[in-house]
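FW: tagging you since you asked about this chain on Friday. Here's the raw sequence from the shared folder, copied in full. Didn't touch anything.
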Amino acid sequence: MNSTELNLYAKQIKRDLNQINGQKVMIIGDLGVDEYIWGDVKRISPEAPVPVVDVNKQDARLGLSANVAANVVSLGGEALLVGVVGNDSGLETLSGLLKKNNVSTEYLINDSERPTTRKIRIMAAEHQQIVRVDFEKKKFLSDKTAQQLLSTVRENIAQTEVVLLQDYAKGVLSESLCQEIIALCKAQGKKVLVDPHRNTPLSYYKGADLFKPNSDESIILSGLHFDELRQPEDMMHRVAEALKSKLSGGDIVITMGKRGVLIYSNGEFSNLPTFARDVFDVTGAGDTVIASLALATAVQWPLVQACAFANFTAGIVVSKVGCVPCGRKELEAFLEPFTKEN
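HL: got it, structure written out here
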């Protein structure tokens, strides 16, 4: 893509941006909280050969599907977040963060036998992680909880045009639940987007309208074996074709980091470059991409324009540290240089 095409997409997005205001996206999947504890390390503990961290700052952020929901809202849409939480202090933290980010807790399912997922990272200095502590249960939902979740989807699906299956392989999305949701969406004319996990069989996602893996995930899920760092472009085309065949159709959008995005739709391939100016942390970039694609799908933007939109928003979040959503004003400022006449 040359600079003229790039500027054209930026202008189209800026022109159409208000179309996504208030668009509802239903997000179904694993959700949780990312917690950070920063401090200084000046000594080793007398109790064991481990560093002692003198805490000077703490922070909690929305993680997993909750971060996708935050991105949908921060870009101007409305998120219907469907997931499973425990009855614990993690739920209190999560609920507070969702409220702060204008994401409703109305569609969350409580299961007292599962903890609310939390990931606590102990950090020395700004970027040096000492240890991570996880509170989670990687286990499929009980039949009762799965039926509660499916009922919640069925009762609220009429509110949205787009349903997003956000899979982090923590047990919320089983094959039967995914297929029931996809069938329900097909029956009601709703688009289904999938952000997959590399360890989840493709059969879970069969019938989805759009499938968005990153390059590593795409190669693993395709069943083909290539050296990701050395593969020529035509090999990624073969990966996309294999995915599309196994999924029985649907568009394929593969995010490839600094190599941009590969799109496979209607038998044709397209490539978009990355638009990031500075890359500090890619954490959460995939969440921003799928949130952007969902909003663009809701207003029926052409797929290439939707992917350009997602690439612009991802270019913003990779310049930040941790899972931080892309703000609407940030996006407008980011687009400005691309929309100026040459």
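FW: The domain at 3-32+68-113+140-339 is CATH 3.40.1190.20 (UDP-N-acetylmuramoyl-L-alanine:D-glutamate ligase).
HL: agreed, and The mean pLDDT is 89.
FW: great, closing this out.
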